[in-house]
Amino acid sequence: MPRTALFVIDIQNELAGHPQTEVPGAARIRSAGSQILRISRALADAAAATPPEEQQNPALTVFVQHEESPESGGTLVRGAEPWKLVFPPREDAVDEILIAKTTQNTFESNPDLADRLQNAGVDHIIAFGLQSECCVAETCKGALAAGFRLTLLQGAHSTYDDKQKTAADIERQIEEMLVSRGAEVVPWDSAVSRWETAGVVC
């Protein structure tokens, strides 16, 4: 049975957990992420308690964590407070994995990741997180290039304002770009409602 992977991209303290450095929409991202993970985990737990012959294939949740070298001058150094995840994986959850990366594209940083996902039955990736035009966009493009169906959760990704555009403008631009490449963009709350109806992240 086809399986979905839910990518939680770079929701780290630097970007969404420290008022001095977080993106303007951090509170929205934390709220959306909390509700998305609450439902996806509830569905995974329900699947685990279901007899194998009745189970739907539960989603694999992939927590992506960016890291920088101390020499780079960046703040996302392994072990540092800004590097830590706002939503860490559950230690006892077999369907939650942590993936480190050093480039914007998670698949580029992890050349075996596409094969690992496909071997686990994954054909569809649902993504949300930070930052829209950087690691979210590049990881989504990497997923499409690897042959996965891709859904981006609208309202659950964001970034910083820049000199020319607001974060909301950048979010819309990235959504339009990904749709032009074959992705689906769905409001995160609509997606969660669909999962609850289906009984599985899909």
From TrEMBL:
<dbReference type="InterPro" id="IPR036380">
    <property type="entry name" value="Isochorismatase-like_sf"/>
</dbReference>
<keyword id="KW-0378">Hydrolase</keyword>
<feature type="domain" description="Isochorismatase-like">
    <location>
        <begin position="4"/>
        <end position="168"/>
    </location>
</feature>
<dbReference type="InterPro" id="IPR000868">
    <property type="entry name" value="Isochorismatase-like_dom"/>
</dbReference>
<dbReference type="InterPro" id="IPR050272">
    <property type="entry name" value="Isochorismatase-like_hydrls"/>
</dbReference>
<dbReference type="Pfam" id="PF00857">
    <property type="entry name" value="Isochorismatase"/>
</dbReference>
<protein>
    <recommendedName>
        <fullName>Isochorismatase-like domain-containing protein</fullName>
    </recommendedName>
</protein>
<comment type="similarity">
    <text>Belongs to the isochorismatase family.</text>
</comment>
<dbReference type="GO" id="GO:0016787">
    <property type="term" value="F:hydrolase activity"/>
</dbReference>
